[in-house]
Design a protein that fits this description.
Blueprint: E1 5-12, E2 16-18, H1 23-26, H2 38-50, E3 52-58, H3 59-68, H4 78-84, E4 87-90, E5 102-105, H5 109-118, E6 123-127, H6 130-138, E7 144-150, E8 158-159, E9 173-176, E10 182-187
Parallel strand pairs: 1-6, 1-7, 3-4, 3-6, 4-5
Antiparallel strand pairs: 2-8, 7-10, 9-10
């Protein structure tokens, strides 16, 4: 059975996943920080990671994760899992990845991800990496979206779906988490 590509993303109510001027400059700080997702949200993220076989990351997300996760120790096993599971980073400028179990995918990203999807195994999660998500969604390679919507409006920044993109998504699951956070899960939508 082919793998599924699942986009897992934190975002604001207006669809922003990153503030281009930085949270400090905007006065919002780490906009996900004040909102606790609660035990149910923590459990969901834990189960999502442990239920997946690999991660697919863009270069920027990979670099930020690789700088933090290897040093993290936790009691839940989340850090051990993310550090030891297979990771694929899409980059034409990175030639050798330092983070354990990381393979660099360069060249034709769409072709490489198609190959990755055809391999047997479990779900592949995409964390962050808006440009990668945009490229894969345009080619119909995203199988599901798992979104944690935070009760804030940023007004600017990178969006999960860029301007002009229309998507028909059918809600599969909806849960309210701590502090007004809502978890939404959608199977593949049609993205032109």
């Amino acid at each position: 059975m082919p793998r599924k590509i699942v986009v897992t993303q934190y975002m604001s109510l207006d669809g922003v996943i990153q503030d281009p001027v930085g949270m400090e400059a905007s006065g919002l700080g780490d906009w996900t920080g004040p909102f606790e997702r609660g035990p149910e949200g923590d459990r969901f993220k834990h189960d999502e990671l442990f239920g997946s076989e690999a991660l697919l990351l863009g270069r920027t997300t990979n670099d930020s994760f690789a700088a933090v996760w290897p040093a993290v120790k936790d009691e839940t096993g989340f850090a051990d899992r993310i550090n030891t599971m297979p990771k694929f980073v899409v980059s034409n400028s990175l030639h050798k990845a330092e983070w354990a179990n990381t393979t660099v995918l360069s060249g034709d990203v769409v072709a490489k991800v198609k190959e990755l999807k055809e391999m047997p195994g479990g779900d592949v999660l995409i964390y962050g990496s808006a440009a990668l998500v945009h490229a894969l969604a345009r080619q119909g390679l995203v199988d599901a979206y798992s979104l944690m919507i935070y009760p804030t409006v940023l007004g600017r920044g990178k969006r999960l779906f860029p301007d002009g993109v229309q998507s028909m998504l059918a809600l599969e699951d909806c849960r309210r988490l701590g502090s007004g956070i809502v978890l939404l899960r959608y199977p593949q939508g049609e993205v032109p």
